[in-house]
Amino acid sequence: MSASPTPVVFVHGLWLHATSWNPWLELFRDAGYDPIAPGWPNEPATVEAARSEPDAVANTSIDDAVAHFTKIIDDLDAAPIVIGHSFGGLVAEKLLGQGIGVAAVAIDPAQIKGVLALPLAQLRSALPALANPANLHRSVSLTREQFRFGFGNALTPEESDALFDRWVVPAPARPLFQAATANLQPHSQAAVDTANESRGPLLLVSGTADHTVPDVSTRSTLKQYRHSSAVTELRQFEGRGHSLTVDSGWPEVAASILEWLRAKGL
Fold first, then answer.
1. With left for phi above 0 and alpha for psi between -120 and 50, is residue 32 left, alpha or beta?
2. 3-state DSSP call for residue 232?
3. By CB neighbour count within 10 A (0-12 exposed, 13-18 middle, 19+ buried), where does 178 fall?
């Protein structure tokens, strides 16, 4: 009897809907995995519904998301690979640090506690949420121009706008506030157990042109794992922005991740 396919749980970040992973689900299924892409807590099932119900996700915290995905993983038949983008990458790191999942891939992962780099482009990308302290318990939407700067800066304006129209939804602002103040909080929800020696392998992925999570931030995240002997590696994609999971170049990123997983025997 052949072994059951390894589950893969995809976790999206802020401002993209869970269905933005659909092309990845098809690719990973064809590659022999059993992938799913659940939404964040209370996330409506479609882009249209999420846009019409922006308050559904308001006030969701990092720990709320981690608990939500932990429950989903607990209900699976086997421990999964967790692949996350942006704040989904931070969630993937937290889960793996807690020993949940056999491996993780964090693509353009949001800033964890301990990362000090804060380039101006990253700050500007977060301003739609952080500019108003009252947004802490609200959901926040992006304009096309804000999306073009934070996600689509390495694309043509036409491709960026098309992605905005297809995938962008309101997002909770609370995780951004939590990440921004992480180094001032002794018990920040953005903290990750980077010293765990027994966890599975972790791959960090960055785009060198990313404004929302600049490459320097991802490289700084890599350094946070220096005290662990567990496998932690970085792959960089030259000239790619924060849209690299959804833009026309996503197959290159996905193929590289599949190659890494196979090299690790996963």
1. left
2. strand
3. buried
Q: Is the CB of residue 80 less than 8 Å from the CB of residue 200?
A: no
pLDDT at 1 over 50: no
Amino acid at site 200: G
Burial class (CB in 10 A: 0-12, 13-18, 19+), 42: middle
Q: At what angle do helices 62-74 and 87-97 cross, to 10 degrees?
A: 60
Tokens of 182: 């992480």
- C-alpha 170/C-alpha 73 separation (Å) is 25
pLDDT at 3 over 90: no
CB contact at 8 A, 91 and 188: no
pLDDT per position as a tens digit, 192-243: 999 999 999 999 999 999 999 999 999 999 999 999 999 999 999 999 999 9
Q: Are 105 and 232 in contact (CB under 8 A)?
A: no
CATH fold of the domain at 7-263: Rossmann fold (3.40.50)
DSSP assignment of 130-198 equals: HT-GGGGGSEE---HHHHHHHT-TTS-HHHHHHHHHHHB--EESHHHHHHHTGGG-TT-TT---TT-SS
